[in-house]
What we know:
Distance between the termini: 56 Å
Strand order of the largest sheet: 1-2
Largest sheet: 2 strands, antiparallel
Number of helices: 3
Strand content: 5-15%
Radius of gyration: 25 Å
Structural class: mainly alpha
Helix content: 40-55%
Number of strands: 2
Amino acid sequence: MSLFKRRRFPVEIILLCVRWYCTYGISYRDLAEMMQERGVDVDPSTIFRWVQRYAPEMERRIRPYRGSRSDSWRMDETYIRVGVTGNTCFARSTSTAG
C-alpha cells in the first residue's frame, strides 16, 4: 500500500513541502506562499498535516544513509617553542598541517 494513496496533491509537491519545512525551518504560511508563487494553491494547515504524517517516515528511511554522528569532538592544538634564551615563550597553533 502506498503511503501517498488517495492524496489530492502529487507526491512530488508533498515531499518538497515536507523537505523544505524540515530542512530550512520555513513557516507553514511562508511555505504556502512559496508554493502559490509556483502555481500550487495549498493551505498552511494542509502542509502542517503533511509534516506531521510524512516527516517521521522520511526521517526513518533517510537515517541509514546519513552516516554516523558523534556527540564528542576534539580540538587539535599544537604548542611550538618560540624562544630559547631568557624567558621561554610558547605559541599555540591550531593548524593540523604537518
